[in-house]
Amino acid sequence: MKKLVYLPLLLVLLSLTSCDAVLKAAKAQQKKQNQGQNNGQNQGQNQTNTEFKKTNLKYGSDVRNTMNVILPKNSTGKTPFILLIHGGAWMKGDKNEVSFIQKFLAENGIASAAPNYRFASSSVHLPQMMDDIKKTVDYCKEHGSEWNVDNNQFIIGGASAGAHLALMYAYKYDLNNTINAVISLSGPTNLTDTKFIEHAKKIGFIDGVQGMVGANYTPNEKLAKNFSDVSPIYNIKNIPTLIIHGNVDKVVFYSQAVELDKALTNANYTHKFVTMDNCDHDLGVLNPINLNKVKIEMSNWIKKYDVNNKY
Fold this sequence. Notes:
- The protein is α/β, with parallel strands linked by helices.
- It has a single domain (2-304), classed as Alpha/Beta hydrolase fold, catalytic domain (Rossmann fold), CATH 3.40.50.1820.
- The chain is 41% helix and 16% strand.
- It contains ten helices and eight strands.
- The protein has helices spanning 2-14, 20-38, 99-107, 126-147, 161-173, 194-203, 206-213, 226-229, 254-266, 288-304; strands at 50-58, 66-72, 81-85, 111-115, 154-159, 179-185, 241-246, 271-276.
- It has an eight-stranded mixed β-sheet, with helices on both faces.
- Helix 1 (2-14) crosses helix 3.
- The longest helix has 22 residues, at 126-147.
- It is globular, with a radius of gyration of 18 Å.
- Residues 1-48 have low confidence and may be disordered.
């Protein structure tokens, strides 16, 4: 059963890179395992502990404005709720890549929604992507009572580019203070770091960076203000933040997490920084020990900072 959980997480984390061959192989393996489950090879108690609610719920007018919702069985008005933002270098990815994470959370009493959002382009930048997330929040608040979950305040989290979007929404765009805590898995935090930008150019996701930022990068020229405007470290807010990052991440450098930790520490803001030793961008989740650590940290953070708990 563990493989059915960690493969989608690995897909989400890998999706910031341009490693399409790796993604296709992992997806093929996941499909094969899913077929095995459907054939009765993985029957167990966990399957009865979740209630699948809806797929492809339409929350806005754009073709990308759909989301999946998964609820725990016997959810109540106090059931914690998290929005999970998929990764993909701001220019690819899909909500279905986090569906098994949603199911794991549901098995632990946590409801979730995973939206698709518009990809960065010449006409879609961070504000438009944030607007999609706001529409997701508004939809969940409107329908939370019928889903029998806590719809007063939510947690938000994501992986890779999705973690960046989660941080930016929690810190800067949540004007109604609906978000109660945020989780970053291998997320970029400082878009003014030219080493990171040059690296994005080298490994193939510079178009996603520039599209999301809404400005181009030219070596040896001063960066446009947009780059700091879209950087979580320059927009921090005192909202409980969980940072999980591998210290040998070859896609989003570990220094990005260190910088956010430093900024939050200097501001005396509530947060926790979890280093995954000797782990790359995928947080080492192919190792069951690392996978279990990530699962426990996420679940504990969501439950600890659910609005029904005091902190």
